[in-house]
Amino acid sequence: MTHAHITSWLITVILFFIAVSLQRSGASKAKIVQMALRLFYIFTVITGGLLLHSIASISILYIIKAIVGLWLIGAMEMVLSGMKKGKNTNVAWIQWIVAFVLVLFLGFMLPLGFDLF
């Protein structure tokens, strides 16, 4: 299940940057990519929930990682919707960067992740 989760969030991040670039260029396919991105949000949340459910003793750090992961998805949506409306997205980008760094740090630090830290 770990590999499915890593694959889903990796595809989610790639689709996010594709959606951002299409949104900036004003391409008509941006809406299709955003719908695919939202589908991968669901895959990421489901696989993350299944991973969380499979842990015998859940540390508070896993709960924090899940909350930060949901925050990251929210930040992605704030960036894309702000760009679509033509608003300033600096705050949303800062939130995205902070949440992304936190979720990666927690993901790699916890026992189900890789031994990077």
Report what the structure shows.
This protein has 117 residues and is mostly helical. It is built from four helices and no strands. The protein is elongated and about 45 Å long. The protein starts with a helix and ends in an 8-residue tail after the last helix.
Q: What are the salient characteristics of this protein?
A:
117 residues, mainly alpha, 0% strand, elongated, UPF0344 protein GWCH70_0687, membrane
How many independent structural domains? 1
* Strand/helix succession: HHHH
Radius of gyration: 15 Å
Tally of extended strands?
0
Low-confidence stretches: none
User: Can you tell me the overall shape?
Assistant: elongated
Structural class: mainly alpha
Average of per-residue pLDDT values: 90
Per-chain topology:
Blueprint: H1 2-25, H2 30-54, H3 60-85, H4 90-109
Helix pairs in contact: 1-2, 1-3, 2-3, 3-4
Structure summarized in a few sentences:
The chain has 117 residues and is mainly alpha-helical. The protein has helices at 2-25, 30-54, 60-85, 90-109. Pfam families: DUF1516.
